[in-house]
Amino acid sequence: MAQAKKAGLPKDIIERAIAKGKGVSQSGAALQTVTLEAMLPPTISAIIECQTDNKKRTLEDIRLIVKNLGGTVTPTSHLFERRGHVILDSERPLEEEGVMEAVLEAGALDMELHGDEKTLSIYTKPNQTTSIAHSLVSSLGLILRRSEIIWVAKPESLVEAEADAETQLPLEEIISV
């Protein structure tokens, strides 16, 4: 909240965000999770997840956006797997070897130490995300920046992307929606 106030966000926007975090809409109705799978141009698989108080309206809106972008609604979840993703920060540079031992001992699946060696990304099973995050915070003295459940592309579904003007423009358009 302090960061939001410091950034100058209006009180009503902050209150709406808090309500959404609690799973309640601004009107007090419970929020539902909506998931839509789509293939977007030029052959980008996507899983779109939203929280809404009006499932039917949200699905129609997302389908329209996908259609307007030249995509199709089609099953794509077989190309992804659910993973817990934890981002931890340190005030001092971390030693990869020592961190790797603690991460594996905590039960994580994979880790990535970023270039500054002060930021650590951990991948877990979805049901172990919170416990592993808290375990690493207490054992390594790290600061929890983010903990979430995400969709990660399966390694066998990844392809090399070419960054040319023809593919880059539609991708930027999709991301900005």
Structural summary, described in words:
By secondary structure, the protein is an alpha+beta fold. The protein is 37% helix and 29% strand. The protein has six helices and seven strands. The protein has helices spanning 2-6, 11-21, 55-68, 96-106, 129-140, 165-176; strands at 32-40, 44-52, 72-73, 80-89, 110-113, 119-124, 143-153. A four-stranded antiparallel β-sheet has the order 5-6-4-7, with helices on one face. It has a three-stranded antiparallel β-sheet with strand order 2-1-3, covered by helices on one side. A hairpin with a 5-residue loop joins strand 5 and strand 6 (119-124). The longest helix has 14 residues, at 55-68. The protein starts with a helix and ends with a helix. The relative contact order is 0.14.
Secondary structure layout:
Layout: H1 2-6, H2 11-21, E1 32-40, E2 44-52, H3 55-68, E3 72-73, E4 80-89, H4 96-106, E5 110-113, E6 119-124, H5 129-140, E7 143-153, H6 165-176
Antiparallel strand pairs: 1-2, 1-3, 4-6, 4-7, 5-6
Helix pairs in contact: 4-5
List keywords for this structure.
four-stranded antiparallel beta sheet, 6 helices, three-stranded antiparallel beta sheet, 177 residues, alpha+beta
% residues in beta strands? 25-35%
**SSE series:** HHEEHEEHEEHEH
User: Would you count the extended β strands for me?
Assistant: 7
- Tally the helices: 6
Integer-rounded radius of gyration: 19 Å
Average pLDDT number: 83
Q: Can you tell me the overall shape?
A: globular
User: If strands are numbered along the chain, what order do they take across the biggest sheet?
Assistant: 5-6-4-7
What is the terminal separation in angstroms? 26 Å
Q: Low-confidence parts, pLDDT < 50 over ≥5 residues? A: none
What does the main sheet amount to? Answer: 4 strands, antiparallel
